[in-house]
Design a protein that fits this description.
CATH superfamily of chain A: Winged helix-like DNA-binding domain superfamily/Winged helix DNA-binding domain
Distance between the termini of chain A: 39 Å
Order of helices and strands of chain A: HHHHEEHHH
Shape of chain A: elongated
CATH topology of chain A: Arc Repressor Mutant, subunit A
Number of helices of chain A: 7
Structural class of chain A: mainly alpha
Number of domains of chain A: 1
Strand content of chain A: under 5%
CATH architecture of chain A: Orthogonal Bundle
Radius of gyration of chain A: 22 Å
Oligomer: homodimer
Number of strands of chain A: 2
Largest sheet of chain A: 2 strands, antiparallel
CATH class of chain A: Mainly Alpha
Largest interface: A-B, 86 and 86 residues
Chain lengths: ~180, ~180
DNA sequence: ACTAAGTCTATATACTTTGTATATTTGCAT
DNA sequence: ATGCAAATATACAAAGTATATAGACTTAGT
């Protein structure tokens, strides 16, 4: 095993490819959707608005640079999930239906983007079988991504809208 | 703040929406791409093949039910990144260029899917500014997702192809 | 020289997200 | 009661991306 390796290692030299021919199209798609970003932003701004009358979609859209019609749909989802209160008619608008301390990132993500796990077979709330999978019970990939899910789930379940608002008061330069 | 809340709470009842009208189109897109899944599978099968001669693309494709032409591109990426050794001509094929113990999920993801973080402004290797961001230094969302990134990064940096192969020998029913 | 493999570039297809348009409903204010 | 302000609902258009396929080229073994 190891002699094969060192053999390969030495032969590799002739296979070094110049950077210019590498594929630079990076996929950013498994990242947070704009929908989710907008949702968090709306909840944050409404969380800061707790003592005020309901805030209109138009105003949130303007302040956060979100397309109004798109935001409407997002707020509707959050409302149907019980996180927002809405009032129609003149003087109407949206406000939080829970305390900012009680709205966690994990809840929002599940409403707007769906599963937290990176593979469907590792999802708690949106589980479904991977098509290509030979045997899910022994699948090592699945096990690895269950661990990943647990790690990110922990953070997402501990971070509330209130936390985010609180943290906006301090600066960071750490990365 | 709290009296407004309880007020909202009581008014909510009239706003309960039947499930049937809710949006059931769940986004599965920020999940692992097929490209990455195929990459991991290929590395795993090659990891089990360490003592054998190079394995042909066609064979990997067949065993793992991966479209051959698509797999070609993926293996090429992995090879250009130094993880695979390839040999042309008769008797050619692919083999690992590192020990399975030394190939980590985080490396593979960065080659095939790009960033680990869920927002570009929280990415270590693929950082770029969020367009919509007012002030990155105080952004609470960014801070939260730096924490998420660190959590999943830890697991992805600890899990190697060898770990995955090892774990395939045991069953789990835990979720 | 022939054949078996990987390499490279371009392009087609399908699917999602993102954003827009239009019509409708609800409720406040006068 | 009427008009206006706001949310609700549904459908659809636009843009972008992943996924897959095609074909010509290069390299190496026999």
């Amino acid at each position: 095993m190891t002699n094969r390796l060192s053999d390969n290692q030495s032969q590799l030299k002739s296979y070094i490819i110049p950077l210019s021919t590498q594929n630079f199209f990076i996929s950013f798609v498994y990242m947070l959707s704009k929908k989710t970003k907008y949702a968090i932003k709306a909840l944050v701004i409404l969380g800061k608005n707790m003592t005020q009358p309901p805030m209109q979609i138009a105003r949130i859209a303007e302040e956060e640079h979100i397309p109004k019609k798109f935001l409407e749909q997002i707020l509707l989802d959050l409302r149907n999930a019980g996180y927002l209160y809405s009032k129609k008619g003149a003087g109407g608008g949206y406000s939080l239906n829970k305390n900012p301390e009680d709205i966690y990132l994990v809840d929002i993500l599940r409403i707007t983007d769906g599963p937290i796990a990176m593979v469907p077979c590792a999802s708690l709330k949106f589980y479904h079988k991977c098509e290509e999978c030979h045997d899910e019970v022994t699948c090592g990939i699945r096990k690895a991504f269950i661990d990943v899910r647990d790690a990110s789930l922990k953070v997402l379940s501990e971070t509330s809208i209130a936390n985010i608002i609180e943290r906006e008061k301090t600066s960071i330069d750490l990365m």
